[in-house]
Structures are given as C-alpha cells and as structure tokens.
Amino acid sequence: MKNAKNNQSRRSFLKVTSLTGGGMMVGFSWFANLIPNEAIAHTQDKENWVELNGFIKITPDNQVKIFNPNPEFGTNVMTSLPMMVNEELEADWSKVIVEMGDYDTPRFKSQFTGGSRAMAMAWRPLRTAGATARLMLMQAAANEWGVSVSELTVSKGVVMHKASNRSANYGSLATAAAKLPKPEKVNLKKPSEFTLLGTAQKNKVGKEIVDGQSLFTIDYKMEGMLIAMVIHPPAFGMELKSFDATEALKMPGIKAVFDFQVYKDGYAKAGFDTRAFNKLIAVVGNSTWEVMNARKKVVAQWEPIQDTKEMVMARGGKREEIIPAGLESTESHLRQMHEMQKKPTRVARKDGDPETAFKSAKKVLERTYTAPFLAHNPMEPISCVAHITDAKAFFVAPIQIPEMIKQNIVANLDIKPEQIEMKLARMGGGFGRRAYGHYIVEAGHISKKVKAPVKLIYTREDDLTNGIYRPTYIMTYKAAIDENNNITALHVIGGGFPESPLHENRFPAGVFANYLAESWELPSNITIGAYRAPRSNFNASAEQSFLDELAETVGKDPLEFRIELLKKAKSNPVGKNNDYDADRYIGVLELLKEKSNWGAAASKNAKRGVAAYFCHASYAAHVVDVTMKNGQPVVEKVVSALDCGFVVNPEGAKNMVEGSVVDGIGNALYGELIFDKGTSQQKNLNQYRIIRHREAPKKIDVHFVQNNIDPTGLGEPPFPPVFAALANALYKATGKRLYNQPYLKELGKIKV
Amino acid sequence: MAKFQLKVNGKPMQVDVDPSTPVLWVLRDHLQLVGTKYGCGVGACGACTIHLNGRALRSCQLPISAVGTQAITTIEGIVSAGKEMHPVQKAWLELDVAQCGYCQTGQIMSAVALLKSNPNPTETEIESAMTGNICRCGTYLRIKAAIQQAAKSSNK
User: Do residues A707 and A646 touch, judged by C-beta distance below 8 A?
Assistant: First the structure.
C-alpha cells in the first residue's frame, strides 16, 4: 500500500450542511431555466447533504454525490475524475451522482483543463479525497458498533462487520462521519487492487447530452436576462474610430448600443488574457435575432492602428510588447518566413560540431515545411453569462482554467476577488480556445453598463474574425549523410508568426552527436493562442515527415529507422536535456508494429504511413492506410498505439484517441485560415473546412501499452503525429511528398 | 412582430416574433427548447437540425413565417409516449458516442430522420445522410456505429 499525505485543506473539512433548493447546493443546476429539469431538480432539491470533503457529499437517505473539479470540454473528466474518487470511496458507482464543481480552486485544489494535465494533477488528490471519506465513514460505523475499523469491510457504499453480521450504508453513517477528525494519513490502493479504475465506464452525463438538456453556457437563462453581441473591427490592424447607433436603437427589442474598452490602459496582460481587439461596440436587446439584426444597422468608422505598446506579465515582471501596425496577409507571412529560414538566428541548442559535419557530408537532405493559421472552431460558439451587481459578480462561463481569469476580472471590472461567483458550464468544445477568457470580461462590462444579467454570444463569424488562432509556422530540417549512409549531423530551424514551433530537446535531439536547433519569431497583430498540443501539432508533422524521407534516403524501413534512432538515444544519449523517455517511445512503436501488422500489405491495397510523437507526458504513434479514389484520399484504416501510463477509463481514452485521429486528418487535409488585408478569408463553416462524416477514417484501432505508471493525458498527445502519418501514407499512395499544409491543397486535387 | 400558431412536439404553441426569425431562435429564445443548437447560422454544421413534418432540416435556415401548419419536432420531442428514450438515443449511450456533446442532438435528429426513411442504411448511405452534421470532436465512427446499432435493434 502506498502512503499518501493528506493535504485536503482545513477549509474543505466540513460540518454537516443543511441546504435547501436555493442554497449553495443548487450549485450547477439550471434553476433559473424556465424549463424545469426534472432529473437535475430531483438530485439537487435534496436537503441535508453531508459534506465529507470538498469532493463528496452524501444524503442521509444514501445518495452519494462526487464533484468533478475540472471544467469539462469533452475529454470526459466528468466521468474519469469522479472514478478516481470513487475507487477509494467505494460507493456504488452505478448510483453515484456526478456534479460539476463551481469555480472554487482552493476547495478543488486545481481546476485546470489544458495541457492534458487532468489525469496527472488529479491522480493523488482525488483518490486521497475518496480514501479519507471512506475511512471516516468506516470510523463512524466502528464507533457505533464498538469495534475496530480493521474488522470492517466496505462494498458498494455499505460498511459491514461480518463477525456480528451488521451493516450500514454510507447515508446512515454520513452525519456522524462528518463530525469526526480527518485522518492524518490514508493508504491508497495499488493498481492491482483497483476495481473501478482501469475498467471501461460510460459517460456519466451521456443521458443529459442525448436528451438535449440545458448543459452549456449558451443554453443558460436567468430572470431578466438580455442578449448581447459585440461589433469588432473588420480586420486585425484596425480599431474603432466612431459609430452611429441611431438606426440600430430604433430596431425592435433593442435596449442599448455603446462602445467599451475591454482592458484598462496599462493593464498588464497575463498569459491567458489574449484578446483580439480592445475597443468594441456592444448591442444589447431582448432576443438573439433582434440583436443580430440591429447589429447590422450600426454604422461604424474604423481606422488603422499605429504600432501599439501593450504591457504583458512575463517571467521577472511586466514588460512591453509591440503590436505592429499593418494589414497582414498569408502571402506576406509565407514570403517572410521563407526569408527568415535562410538567416542565422537564435541558437536554441547545439551539440558537437554540426558545421564541420555538414561541410564533410557526402549528401545533404534538406526539406522545408509550412502550416497555416488554424481556427479552433469549438462547436458551441463563444458565449458567457454575466450579472454584475454591487454585491457580487455572477458568471456562467465556459472557461478551461478559471483561476487564470480572476486577476483580469478583478482589475478590469473593479470587482473584489471574493465577489466572484462562477458556474463552470459544460463547454461545447475548447481545443485551447476557451483558455482565453476575454469574453468573460466583455460580458461583465456589458452587464455593468446595462445593470442586468446578460448573455454575450459571438456568432461563428465573430470567432473566425475576432478570435485567437493557431499560429502559422515554418520548419526546415537538414541532415548530413556520409558515404556509408550514416547520418552525421542534424540541423533544424523553425519560426512563425508570432511564435516558433521549435522543441529543441525533443526527439530526434539526443540521437546525433552533431545537432543544431535554431528558432525565431516575427511579430504579428493577429492574436494567437494554444491549440490542441501547441507547437507540437506542427513540430511533429515536420519532424516525422522528415524522418520518413530521411529513412528512405538512407534505405531503411521508416518504422525500424525510428526504433533504431531511439535505441541510439537510449544507449548513448547526446546532451542532458532530452525531454523524452526513449524506452517508452520504443514501446509504443513496438506495439504499433505488432498491432498494425507492419511489414504486411495494408488493407484493401491501401498504402501505409507511420509517425510517432511524444508530448504532454504521453507517447503516441499511428499507422495510417490510405487509398486514392477519384483523386481524393480515403483513409481506410488507422492503427494507434499509446502510452499514457495507467489507463483510467479505457472507453473514454479510446474515444479521445479516435477523435484526435479524425481531428488530425481533418486539419492536415483541409485546415487553414487564410489572411488577406488583415482579415480571415474563411468567415463561417461553409468556408472554413472541417472534416465531415464521409471523410473520416473507415476504421480506427486503438491500443494502449499496459503499465502502472501514474496516468498522463490523452487530449493532446495522439493529435500531433496524425499529420505526418497521413502525409507519409499519401506519399506512398501518390509518389508525392507533402511539405505544406493543408495537404489536400498541395496534392492539387481539391474539389471546389 | 407577428403572432404564429405552431405545433411543436405535438403541442400547440404561440409566439409573437418578427416573421424573419429563424425557427432555431424561436425554439431557443422564445420556447425554451435549448436542445436545438446554434453552430454556424448558415446551414453548414447541422447542430440546429429539427424535423419539419418528419423531414430533417436546418432550423437556422427556416424563417418562422415559412412553417405554417407543418409539425416541428425537436430533440425534446422524439421520445414516444411512455418510453424513456428513442432507440437512437439509446444506441448513442450504449456506444458512448459523445465527447463535448454539443453537436450530438443535431446528429441524433439527422439519424432519426435517416432511419425513418431508410430503416437499413448502408455505411455509405449513413455517411452521405450525416455529412451535413459536423462533429468537431471527431466522434464520426461512433455515430455511424450507433446508427447501425439502432437500425438493428429497430429491425428486430
């Protein structure tokens, strides 16, 4: 048995709380929704919930509720995190009620949806919370029966004393248990003792989803709530000069039209405070359609920005950042990126003597890869409910990391931290977009101004023109090869607007004695942010496409070539900062080799490509089988191998990998946000191409390396290697190496 | 503004809205039926799929003035009386389809309409009928499998 230190905060060790329908326990219920939700009302109208700790509440009549701390955007933390609690709590999982916790990070320790970190961050605290509560319930029974805890057993929420044939359910023990001191130390089960973790469990919220219940921010309603939309400049590099709302205000149902400043002058933006435009026009009215129509009647004048200084919070304090003037274009970005690749730039890592190795090389393979801006396009458009009163600031917010938006709300809405009350709604997708909560502050400003609850809604066009995007990148790989086909040096240089994709310490760093990694970035006024596996999503495509071509150049099988390089990195690593575990990397490739039947012919005369990648603490590899039909690629089958340590919920994990594969294929083939004169050319989903049913792979086989290493995430790691596995397969199918995303365009076969 | 008499999920309902208002916003803002989702507003994503006289269509593209006496069915109205779930919803749960879940009601509405007109669709027919419904999370394979499973269970 492993010991875990009990670090549940004192605050979360609580007394009995009697709560009624309108109290705190209403929590995430949609009580103000005009349609009463029977199922939720049933669970939440319960009185006399006993709180055992921040994660667990139990009623005297034996309903057990587990709170999910992390905002849910589709990775199914609503199931997997409560599973961790219940593995130790040992309540009857089929009857456990799962509820989304409100924003209360001190209580929940961490509420962080991003970086594929949920599993790793929750693994100990949540099991400890479950074990602590179980021990208290057992102690309550032991006290009642005058026996020792060691004589008791627990199963499905019932404590039993076999010797005297007595039993009691958790509900009957909860009130007494909550009064007991919290045990200082609890023992956590070993993986071999798990009965719930590691078993396939279905989504705890599945029924609510298929019923179409009110789950998302955009569904939320409250008494007196108005609808708000904003008008933003027509292009990056423009700002508001003046506007005339006379006609808009005459439109039916319109309450107010006004301009406002999102962040105060001089506000130092932290990492997740990115927003496209600081001066917006708000249009507020009774209903969405009325506001949409009135918005068209506002006549606004825009003007170009000058180079603008903005303060940002960085390591070591505030620093100034220049937002450049100008109307940028994809064409100009590409030209500048190619020019930058020819210049020496910042050295991120250097091993050995790459210059000499390249000079004496018999052969040099050099290839350059590019990728465009991408839009996250979560299916639920950006939205936020805000009701700011003198007493409090109430929000229903779809936000990945609520703690990160706190200082922004406090500074820009003049609110005290303790006045913030935030419900964390289920998010209709995120992919990184909802890490940036500028819309929460925008909704707050609007509510303050109109002195009413408001729901701010962005249209799809708004998010595609006033959003936050995956940067555009370039990467060049160069290998020096000697007369015996040995690779003697590797040079990688990468950059982008306004961020470099380079991970200088990632495989194949550590393999070659002579290695040079260089990095640069150019400023842009187009706002960028994290997008599913930031930087890795491009880095992997370049690296793994190059390795494929390099394997071919030196006459090796692409999968065996990767294993061979990793074995070198394992036995004789170069440098100290290599960020991957070569053994685990080899492990996923070996599993993939076996499960894909590598070396055998692919299914249906398809051609195969392979790629692997490590990021966000997990290892992923795919074999993609493609055929070409009428000039269009058809993905017949994908075999995936993953090592994310212990697999908490194999059903959810499998779904996550399948989704990443589909997302990867879609973005690789179709994804692009093209800019011209500062504005994106894809303004809605009829122009921005997202993968659809008939374009998805016909089959995806997912396999996990079985081990008991503490779990790591799956939201991001399976995504990056999909691009190159597909490109490498397309090369086999068409004879054409693909260097520039989206690949379908490069194949020159795009159907208009 | 104008008054419209509607039949929604078998019940008579009345709204007083601008005649150009899309059915999507009538359902969401005026009738509190929020299972029908807004995704794009241009009929490109399928999140707002409803049935009009049993036929699937995008409610963001249908002005309320064009409805007349035709029956509107939303996700809230597909379950037969006395049943807890529609067989398609049941298959969705059994195959654990959803990730974020936002598009799934629209997917289900398209699937229900498909199975009504074609109780035993081939894989190609499913892909073709469902291709107007985007799932950004990429749950397409599970959606296809769920439709096949629902078809099987209904054809028993």
Answer: yes
Share of chain A above pLDDT 90, in %: 88
Share of chain A above pLDDT 70, in %: 93
State in Å, rounded, how far the first CA of chain B is from the last one: 49
Please give the structure tokens belonging to residue A257: 């039209």
Q: What is the DSSP letter of A127?
A: H
Decide: helix, strand or coil at residue A386. Answer: strand
ipTM of the shown complex: 0.98
* Residue pair A480/A487 in contact by the 8 Å Cβ criterion: yes
Contact A662, A697 (CB under 8 A): yes
Nearest to B25 among A210, A212, A287 (CB): A287
The residue with tokens 């609580």 is: A14
Three-state SS for A236-288 is CCEEEEEEECHHHHCCCCEEEEEEEECCCCCCCECCCCCCCCCEEEEEEECCH
Identify the weakest region by mean pLDDT among A100-109, A289-298, A462-471.
A100-109
Specify whether the CB–CB gap between A588 and A642 falls below 8 A.
Answer: yes
3-state secondary structure of A634: strand
Compute CA distances A164 → A143, A152, A160, A402, B104, whole Å: 14, 10, 9, 50, 51
A380–B100 CB contact, under 8 Å: yes
Determine the residue type at A624: V
Please tell me the predicted confidence (pLDDT) of residue A104. 94
The SS3 assignment for A496 reads strand
Using left for φ > 0, alpha for ψ between -120 and 50, and beta otherwise, residue A24 falls in alpha
> How many CB atoms are located within 10 Å of the residue A336 CB?
15
State the Cα–Cα distance between residues A563 and A569, nearest whole angstrom. Answer: 10
Give the pLDDT of residue A749.
Answer: 57
Q: A667: nearest CA in chain B? A: B136
Distance between CA atoms of residues A282 and A303, nearest Å? 18
How far lies A360's CA from each of A33, A121, A353, A510, A554, in Å? 73, 49, 11, 21, 17
Residues 6+ apart with CB under 8 A from A136: A52, A177, A178, A180, A182, A183
B residues 38-77 near A, CB within 8 Å?
38-45, 47, 74-76
How many CA atoms lie within 13 Å of A151's alpha carbon, on the beta-carbon side?
14
Chain B contact for A76 (CB, 8 A cutoff): yes
How many whole angstroms separate alpha carbon A491 and alpha carbon A489?
7
Smallest Cβ–Cβ distance between A659 and the set B37, B45, B137 belongs to: B137
Of A207, A684, A691, the CB nearest to B40: A684
Contact A218 B37 (CB under 8 A): yes
CA neighbours closer than 13 Å in the CB half-sphere of residue A103: 23
What's the mean pLDDT in B53-57? 97
In tens, the pLDDT along A592-625 reads 999 999 988 777 789 999 999 999 999 999 999 9
Q: Does A694 touch chain B (CB under 8 A)?
A: yes
Burial (CB count <10 Å: 0-12, 13-18, 19+), residue A22: exposed
Mode of pairing for the β-strands spanning A56-58 and A2-5 = unpaired
Terminal Cα distance for chain A, rounded: 62
Q: Given CB atoms, is A427 within the 8 Å cutoff of chain B?
A: yes
Which residues in A lie closer than 8 A to residue B99 (C-beta atoms)? 74-76, 655-656, 659
Angle, CA of A530, A532 and A536, to the nearest 5°: 85
Residue A721: cis peptide before it, omega within 30 degrees of 0 = no
Q: What is the pTM of this model?
A: 0.94
Q: Nearest to residue A717, comparing CAs of A638, A651, A669, A656?
A: A656
Other beta carbons within 10 Å of A360:
11
